[in-house]
Design goal:
Blueprint (H helix, E strand, L loop, with lengths): L15 H18 L3 E2 L5 E3 H7 L5 H6 L2 E3 L5 E4 L4 H10 L6 E10 L11 E10 L4 H18 L4 E7 L3 H16 L7 H9 L26 H16 L4 E3 L11 E9 L10 E5 L3 H4 L7 E7 H8 L10 E5 L5 H13 L4 E2 L7 H11 L3 E8 L2 E6 L5 E5 L3 H6 L1
Parallel strand pairs: 1-5, 7-8, 12-13, 12-14
Antiparallel strand pairs: 2-4, 3-4, 5-6, 6-11, 7-9, 9-10, 10-11, 14-15, 15-16
Length: about 400
C-alpha cells in the first residue's frame, strides 16, 4: 500500500523547502527587529473561540472549519486563523498592558484546493495589543510591506481602507443595506444571506462585483474620530515610504475587524482575486472573547503565496561550503575542518563515509554549496573552489574560516 499526501496539503521538500526556510527566517528576524515577541498557541482550540471571535456568519465558520468532538464530548476545531487564539492567550495571561506578538505556523480550512488556497497552509503574522494609536497601525502595515520587499517581491502595494468604529458601522450599515436591497434579486445566494448577517461582506464578493460597483463606501461615512484615525494612518505610511492605494471595497472576511483594514497585493502573484495577505484593527475582539475591551491591530501573511509570487527567482546557496577529502587518509582531517567551519557558524557539510573524490563532488553539487573545500592537496592547507565560476585559492587551514567569511 502506498500512502499519498491528503488532498489540499503538500510535502515541502528540498530544493523547494530552501525558499521556505529563507522567508520564514526573514520574517522571524524582521519581527524581532520591530520588537515582536514569539508566541505559540495550540493548533486546535475550542470551537466557540472561532464562532464567537471570527463570526458565526463568516464562510470560515460556516463552511471551512475542521471540527470534531473529543472523547469528553467537547467541540474542538483545528485553527483556521491565529488572531483569536493569540488574543485568547493574551487574556489568559492577564490581558493587561501593551503586548507585541509574532507567530508562525500551519492553519487549516476545508477549501477547494487551488494555487494559493490549500487545506493546510502556513501563515506568519503579528498582533499589536493594547494600543489604539494610529502609529500602531502604521507600524504593522510597514512591517508586512518590508517583509515582502526583503523577501524579493518587488511590486508590492498596500490596499488600504477604513470600515469605521461601532458608531460609523451602525450608520453605514443602514445606508448599505438600503442600497443592496434594491439589487437583492441580482445578488448571489451568499450575498443575499449576508444582507441580514454581515452586509459589509457583500462588498468583497467576487460574484457580485458589478452589483456593488457603485455602492456607498464605508470611508465616506466615518465618524469624526474614525476619519481622523484613518488620516493619521495614511500620513504615517507616506512618511515611512510605504506605497498604498485607497481601496473602498476592501473589508476583509472576518467579523472582528474595525477601523483600519488592508491587504497586500502584487502583480507577480498572478492568482485572480487573491491578496498576498492582509489584516486590520480588531478593537472589539478581546471583549467578544470575554475579556476587557482591548484595542488591537495585526496581519496574517500566507507563506504559500509568498513562494508562488517569487516564481522562478534564484535562491541563494543553502550551504557555504562542502568539505571534500582527497584521499581516505585525509578523511579524519576533513572532518576536523568541517567541525571548525560549523563552530564558526559557517554552513558546511560533507559525506560522513569515506568515498571517492568524484562521489564527494557529486554530493557537493547536489547540496548547492557555494564553495568546495578540498583537504589533502597540500599539508596544512585547503583548496577552496567556487562552485559558480571555478575560481579557486589555496588557504591555510587556520585561516579558512576568516577567508570564507570574507
Amino acid at each position: 500500500m502506498t500512502f499519498r499526501v491528503p488532498k489540499g496539503t503538500d510535502d515541502i521538500m528540498p530544493p523547494a523547502s530552501r525558499r521556505w526556510r529563507r522567508v520564514l527566517r526573514l520574517f522571524d528576524e524582521l519581527a524581532e527587529r520591530y520588537g515582536y515577541e514569539l508566541v505559540m498557541t495550540p493548533v486546535f482550540e475550542a470551537t466557540e473561540l472561532f464562532s464567537r471571535g471570527v463570526g458565526e456568519s463568516t464562510d470560515v465558520v460556516q463552511k471551512q472549519m475542521y471540527t470534531w468532538d473529543d472523547k469528553a464530548g467537547r467541540s474542538m476545531t483545528l485553527r483556521p486563523e491565529a488572531t483569536a487564539p493569540v488574543v485568547r492567550a493574551y487574556l489568559n495571561g492577564g490581558g493587561r498592558g501593551v503586548a507585541k506578538y509574532a507567530y508562525s505556523g500551519p492553519m487549516f480550512r476545508y477549501e477547494q484546493p487551488q494555487a494559493g488556497r490549500r487545506r493546510q497552509f502556513w501563515q506568519v503574522g503579528v498582533e499589536y495589543l493594547g494600543e489604539d494609536s494610529p502609529i500602531a497601525d502604521v507600524e504593522v502595515i510597514e512591517l508586512g510591506y518590508r517583509f515582502y520587499t526583503e523577501a524579493g517581491i518587488p511590486d508590492v502595494s498596500v490596499q488600504l481602507n477604513s470600515i469605521g468604529d461601532a458608531e460609523s458601522r451602525a450608520a453605514y450599515r443602514t445606508i448599505l443595506v438600503d442600497y443592496l436591497e434594491t439589487r437583492r434579486d441580482r445578488l448571489s445566494e451568499d450575498s443575499q444571506r449576508r444582507l441580514a448577517t454581515n452586509p459589509l461582506r457583500v462588498l468583497d464578493s467576487n460574484l457580485d462585483t458589478a452589483e456593488v460597483a457603485d455602492a456607498p463606501s464605508p470611508v465616506d461615512h466615518l465618524s469624526p474620530a474614525s476619519a481622523a484615525h484613518f488620516s493619521s494612518v495614511k500620513a504615517g505610511l507616506t512618511d515611512r515610504g510605504v506605497p498604498f492605494v485607497e481601496a473602498p471595497r476592501v473589508v476583509r472576511g472576518l467579523d472582528y475587524y474595525t477601523r483600519t483594514v488592508f491587504e497586500y497585493t502584487a502583480a507577480s502573484y498572478g492568482v485572480a482575486q487573491d491578496s498576498l495577505g492582509g489584516g486590520g484593527r480588531y478593537d472589539g475582539l478581546a471583549g467578544q472573547l470575554g475579556g476587557a475591551e482591548v484595542p488591537g491591530v495585526g496581519f496574517s501573511l500566507g507563506i504559500d503565496r509568498v513562494v508562488l509570487a517569487l516564481g522562478d527567482a534564484e535562491e541563494p546557496p543553502s550551504l557555504d561550503a562542502f568539505v571534500v577529502a582527497v584521499t581516505e587518509q585525509d578523511h579524519a582531517e576533513a572532518q576536523a575542518v568541517l567541525a571548525r567551519l560549523r563552530a564558526s557558524t559557517i554552513r558546511a557539510d560533507s559525506l560522513a563515509r569515506v568515498a571517492s573524490v568524484k562521489a564527494q563532488l557529486k554530493a557537493a553539487n547536489r547540496s548547492g554549496a557555494e564553495w568546495v573545500v578540498r583537504v589533502g592537496d597540500r599539508p596544512g592547507k585547503v583548496t577552496a573552489r567556487s562552485m559558480k565560476d571555478g575560481t579557486q585559492e589555496v588557504v591555510e587551514i587556520a585561516e579558512v574560516v576568516a577567508w570564507l567569511t570574507q
